[in-house]
Amino acid sequence: MGPFHTGHGLGGGHPPKAQIYLMTLPNARAYRIGRDTGDDMTIDGIDQLKRWLKYYAGLAAVPFAFGILSVWLPFLLLLVIWVGLAGLYLAAIAVTIRWSFAAWATMPLGGTMTRRIAAILIPPALLVAGELAIFPLARVGGNVGLLSQIAVYHQRFEHIIATETARPTAEGRGAFKGVTYHVDPGPPARVAFFPEGVLDNWTALIYDPTGEMMQADGFDPATGKFRAPDRVTKLFGGDLVWCRPLWGHYYECGFT
What we know:
49% helix, alpha+beta, single chain, 6 strands
């Protein structure tokens, strides 16, 4: 036996390392990870998984982006975007169904029954996870948008707050360098920046130096009345339903 004998006969045994290396070249698309048993994931299968993950990650980024845009765009334009989003998610359902049926035939995870079933379940599982994350991601995006609004308009906000604290506007509302606002004279004076909504249902970025507006916590189901006292719910002349903190004395609040 020579010094370079591999120990593998031509009739059996594992292939030489050089042969394994050649099988892993990019053009060897049918090469399987591990032994070539037909039950393992193919390189094409890995590529398919990457495509799925990229698609559903992009889909998950949509509500986050919408949350940011909801702070900066007019309310009516957001309604139009909502219609577009509904179409997008309907298309995502169709894509998911198509990928699930295709996965049964292409076997991206391998050829065993367990792996084929797992392959057809991955797209709908990713879609459901994305659907469940819509509202949390939209809220995170909304927080980012509101914080960016505070950063961009901070000096204008401070000017309005100082002006309205010294002498509140008689009309209870105003505008300054592109910033619209409502005022509750208090004391102390509170300012609602960029109020948006339909009729009596509206939201705004609120400056409240006391933090009392955080007491707003919806209705008591037993009595049908607001949980917070009237001195809180009647601020800005409307029915304050909820508030959540953003930064310092700034809050996002909703009225009805």
